[in-house]
Specification:
Elements (H helix, E strand, L loop, with lengths): L2 E8 L2 E7 L4 E2 L1 H11 L5 E7 L2 E8 L2 E7 L6 H18 L13 H16 L5 H6 L10 E4 L14 E2 L1 H48 L6 H4 L1
Helix pairs in contact: 2-3
Length: 222
């Protein structure tokens, strides 16, 4: 499971966001459509779009949203959102964000989003964090809805995501395996040449010895 995008907003006004280097695509555009549909009342919800999942938590009119790439895995994204929320409220309080303009916190807080995103994507044992955060509710009760249900008639969005890190990893693995295969074929070919050369030399040697009257080559010495 990978969290590839996250933001903090006040309704449709994005205050800070970060996109992981592992993916590029138009999901910032998709989230702008989503933000217009998310109620400003406190709550949490998950929207599904194909194999991608948008999770959000709204508290005090501030929305904390992230996008992950696996269905049926909600606990880690919601731990991330709660962590991001605590970091945001701890830095900016609850009143200032209500008056902040778009991207006013992006320079500072996008770095924090990046740091927490990398932590939760690293596979670190976040269960311990979840245990001490007693305020986190059980996410099993979170409503999951297909994103198309919130779109109005005639409104259409298309999610385009390029998982560059996976492509790079696959290319690296392919290159490494190709390199290993080339080395293996090279040494195999070299061994074949050596064996063939040795056999040929032995054939020539014994043929010459036979022609010259034996291994002493007495006929050829005359």
């Amino acid at each position: 499971m990978t969290i590839v995008y996250a933001l903090v907003s006040r309704q449709k006004t994005v205050l800070a966001e970060h996109t992981a280097t592992s993916a590029t695509g138009n999901f910032p555009t998709v989230t702008r459509v989503l933000l217009a549909k998310i109620p400003s009342v406190d709550g949490k919800m998950t929207y599904v779009y194909d194999e991608y999942v948008f999770h959000y938590v709204v508290e005090n009119n501030i929305c904390y949203l992230c996008m992950s790439d696996e269905l049926n895995k909600h606990r880690i994204p919601y731990l991330f959102l709660e962590d991001m929320k605590d970091q945001f409220v701890g830095r900016y309080g609850r009143e200032d964000p209500q008056r902040a303009i778009a991207f006013s916190y992006n320079e500072q807080f996008s770095k924090i989003i990046k740091d927490r995103m990398e932590f939760y994507n690293s596979g670190a044992p976040v269960d311990n964090i979840g245990a001490v955060k007693s305020q986190i509710e059980d996410v099993k009760g979170v409503m999951v809805q297909n994103i198309e249900k919130v779109l109005e008639r005639g409104e259409k969005i298309e999610l385009l995501v390029d998982k560059t890190d996976r492509l790079n990893q696959q290319a690296f693995k392919f290159e490494a395996s190709s390199r290993n295969l080339r080395k293996s074929l090279y040494w195999k070919r070299l061994r074949c040449y050596a064996i063939t050369g040795t056999i040929t030399a032995l054939i020539i040697f014994f043929a010459t010895a036979s022609f010259c009257g034996g291994l002493s080559f007495r006929k050829c010495k005359k």
